[in-house]
Structure prediction request, 425 residues.
Amino acid sequence: MKFDRRSFIRSASVLAALTMAEIDALAASHRIKNHSKPVAEDDEAYWSNMRQLFPLAKDLVYLNNGTFGPSPYPVIDAMRTAQMDADMHGNYGAYDATMPKIAKFVGADDDEIALTHNVTEGINIACWGAPLKRGDEIIVTTHEHVGNAAPWMNRQKLDGIVLRKYTPARTAAETLERINALINKNTRAIATPHIPCTQGQILPIKEICRLAKDKGLFALIDGAHGAGMMPLDLHDMGCDTYATCCHKWMLGPKGTGFLYVRKGFQDTLQAYYAGGGTDDGKWNIMTNPITIGNYAPSAHRYFGGTQANGLYTGVNASIDFIETIGQKNIHRRIKYLGKYTQDRLLEFGNKIELLTPTEERSRCAVNGFRIKGVDYQKFFTRCNDKKIRIRMVPENGINSLRVSTHIYNSKADVDRFIEEVKKVV
Prediction:
């Protein structure tokens, strides 16, 4: 190979300007690029490089991806570059490329994706846009996050709809039975999470959506934990809406999300938040009477106005990052770590109450549990003090703990957490 002195000097200069952490990240990035080729879930040599791609503190065991996932360096760099480009050259509109990219990622069409800032915003669009009247019943769970509970409770307060609740069962089949038992002549929608935030149970969402369709109900899904955790095909799922975010399992920028609205449902779901892009551009406030345009013939009718170049370029980069590794590879790895966490917790026998089902189809990367005789808040604080980040679950009086793992985690991270459990039981 010919020695190019000029290229060597240029490369050496670049490397000299980098920190050791950045050099480690470059090396790790090179090692993990496989363009979706299969990787074994227990290939520790491969997965150990992942940690280098994230700016996580070296002494931190981060087991709270279910709240938000730290972004890897390629996503952070993409955001910074796009923001600098916008501020230096006045460019805007980068989000135009994001909707098609998201659509392909989740098995939808370009015109079925509305950009949002978070899951809660998407749920509110679905909640308030659904044609409901006083006395109409909506089915929710007893394991709701405030983002799916508050919008529906607010509509109950203001419009007189009725919320009916089910508790997810230990198996998918029994969960479906519980939902079916609540349906009556007043039921109009099933507004359930795909994966409840409390204990990470994978609900039988495709069957739930099919049940809704068979009964003539709306299927309005809180998908906060779906995108990025597992491969999604929203057309195959059969939901009417699916609200999710990019800052959890997609490892994208904080303050980004999207709402899927099925094409055939868009003329049913009323748009209320209007602005640039929500209509066909034919409005004219100077005419008499005022000319009112039609809604955009897409899910763009549900959002309008200026969007952040840097953030949505970061979303694009997060999808590229996932696809470089392979969504199926990621799903297998985080499910493997979730099962390892379950197995370690179950070693304590009846001293641990595992809230997440062990059924294969009903579990993945999140585990909820209680330690018998130990205050959940005190154990959370104990872990925090030891630089182990987990989550308390005070929602709905569940009063439990939650651990969630992603590709930057290892079995050693789980073992370090288990050592703290061992000390208190």
User: Anything to note?
Assistant: The domain at 89-322 is CATH 3.40.640.10 (Aspartate Aminotransferase; domain 2). The first helix runs from residue 5 to 16. The chain is about 40% helix and 15% strand. The mean pLDDT is 93.
